[in-house]
Structure formats: structure tokens, C-alpha cells
Design brief:
alpha/beta; Rossmann fold; 48% helix; globular; AB hydrolase-1 domain-containing protein; AB_hydrolase_fold
Length: 237
């Protein structure tokens, strides 16, 4: 980037029933270290995610991104608005096209049913470690909307292979090699379909110690894709 270039705005959306707090913990420091700013919308539903990206555009191309559901929405928005998008950050993509029986979709649907039948505490009771701590922090912020948001996410669409093939902008993909809910194979499918993409991996254990491991992996992959390097997914701690 030369002195006359303007750094793009990075707008990053949260995953299913997650929030902007997690987005900032994962992406703010890595982006800042490379001279980029972060916009982390407080959107919750699929429609609110799309609306947040529409609202963020001010006539200059954006780099859009997200985690899981947020990544799906960002990529779909980029496919719809190619002239508004300078690139995409994809963290933990969960499926391609219709959700079907993807593990993340089944988990969201099951959690919605538990919230409806037994309440929030029961829905997170069996989730241990940092993931459980994040759910117990973020889910109460949704109030009565939680089950509906989970159900909506479980039935939402990710970009199709054709949409991914049509994305001409650089795309950085981050995946956790040990995440059964967001399988590495899905990230590799996205990588194979995208014309300008790179993939970097980290681990759930690394995120437990430092959430920004996810943001560093995504940004490193994006910078590799932007420079034309389709590098192998070396782990990023």
C-alpha cells in the first residue's frame, strides 16, 4: 500500500448467537498491527447482518468478513455487490449452499430446541472450556430472540459453489483443524472454488489461549491471497 492509498475498512460480522465482543477479541489486534481498522456491527439476525454491510458502505470498497454464519453472509454480500467489495475475510465457514445436515446447522437447531424446552442454562450446561464461557457470556444478550436466531441460522444458506467461483476479490480463509462443527474440509471446499484465496489453519486450543489466533490466521490468508500467493494452510498459533 503506497502513501496515496487509503486502507480499506474491514467490516466483520459475528457467528450464530455470537456478538461483536467476540469479533473484536479475534480481529481488532491483528488488523491494527497491519494498519487496518475494524468495524464490528452489533447485528444479530441474517437480515441485520446484510443491513449492517449495506450501512457500512460509503462509496469506497470494503473488506467484509465474519465468523461462521457471519462469514457466509459476508461472502454472499460480496457476490451480490462486487463493486462494493475489496476482499473477504472468512473464519470458520460451516457449509456451502443449503445448510442440510451440516454439523453447525444441526447444533444450532438442537440448541434452539433446548432453549425453548428447558431454558438457556440447560442449553449451555454441557459446553465446556472457552466455547462454553463465550456462550454463557453472549447468549443472554439475545434475550427472547435467542431460539429464533439459532433456528434462523440453522436454516440459512451459505454461498453456493457458483457464487464462490464468481468472487474475483482476494479471500482469506481461517479454519481450526480440530473443529468438528466447522470442518476443515468445508474450508478446503471454499478454497478450491474461489479464484483468489488462501487458507490458514489454527486450533481451538490456540483460540482458548488467545482469541486473536483466529483473526491472525484470517488476515494472514487474506494478505497472501491479495499478493497472489495460494500458500498451504500452515498452522497459525
Amino acid at each position: 500500500m503506497t502513501s496515496t492509498d487509503v486502507a480499506p475498512t474491514f467490516v466483520v460480522l459475528p457467528g450464530t448467537a455470537s456478538d461483536e465482543v467476540f469479533v473484536r477479541s479475534a480481529f481488532a489486534a491483528p488488523l491494527a498491527s497491519s494498519g487496518f481498522g475494524l468495524v464490528a456491527p452489533r447485528s444479530r439476525s441474517v437480515a441485520e447482518h446484510f443491513a449492517a454491510l449495506d450501512a457500512a458502505w460509503r462509496g469506497e470498497p470494503l473488506v467484509v468478513g465474519g465468523v461462521s454464519l457471519g462469514a457466509h453472509i459476508a461472502a454472499r454480500w460480496a457476490a451480490r455487490h462486487p463493486r462494493r467489495c475489496a476482499g473477504v475475510l472468512v473464519a470458520l465457514p460451516a457449509w456451502v449452499g443449503p445448510a442440510g445436515d451440516a454439523p453447525a446447522a444441526l447444533a444450532a437447531a438442537a440448541s434452539a430446541a433446548l432453549v425453548d424446552s428447558e431454558g438457556l442454562a440447560a442449553a449451555v450446561a454441557g459446553v465446556d472450556g472457552w466455547v462454553g464461557a463465550e456462550l454463557r457470556r453472549a447468549w443472554p444478550r439475545y434475550g427472547d430472540r435467542l431460539a429464533d436466531v439459532l433456528r434462523e441460522a440453522a436454516g440459512s444458506a451459505a454461498p453456493t459453489l457458483d457464487e464462490l467461483r464468481g468472487l474475483a476479490v482476494p479471500v482469506g480463509i481461517a479454519a481450526c483443524a480440530d473443529d468438528p462443527v466447522h470442518p476443515l474440509a468445508v474450508a478446503e471446499t471454499w478454497l478450491d472454488a474461489l479464484p483468489r484465496a488462501a487458507l490458514k489453519t489454527t486450533s481451538l486450543d490456540a483460540l482458548g489461549t488467545d482469541r486473536s489466533a483466529l483473526g491472525r490466521a484470517a488476515l494472514d490468508a487474506y494478505l497472501a491471497a491479495a499478493s497472489g500467493r495460494r500458500s498451504p494452510p500452515d498452522p497459525i498459533g
